[in-house]
# Entry
Amino acid sequence: MKTNTPIRVRYQETDQMGVVYHANYLVWFELGRTDFIEALGFHYHEIEKQGVLSPVIDANIHYGKPVRYGEKATVETWLEAYDGLRITYGYRVLKENGEESVSGSTKHVIVKEDSFRPVSIRRSFPEWHEAYQSALEEE
# Structure
C-alpha cells in the first residue's frame, strides 16, 4: 500500500538559492504520513484523544536532486516495517518529471501522553495493528 501526496512548493519553504530548505522535506514526510494514516482509516487527532502520541524516534533522509520554488512534487509514502510496537514509514519525494528528489524514513512508537511510556499497538489498539499488518501484506 502506498499513498501519493501532492506538494506545491511555497516560497517560504525555499532558501536563498530558491531550493527547498533541507529540513522542510521532513515536514513533507509528515504530510505524507498523515495521508497514509488517513488511508488506513485513522486520524491523528482521534488517536491523540485516546491519550497517546506518536513521536519520531529516528529519521533518515537522502538528498538527491533539489526541488525549487514554483515546482510541484509528490510525496510517496508506505509502511516499511512494523513489529507491534515500532512503525517505520518510507518516503520518496518525486519531482514533476518523475525524478526522485529525496528518499528517507521515519521510525515511530506510540507512547502514553502523560508518561511517554511506550504502548504495545498489538495489545492496546488491535484495530491499528490489523491495519498496519494489512498494509505490510499489500507491499
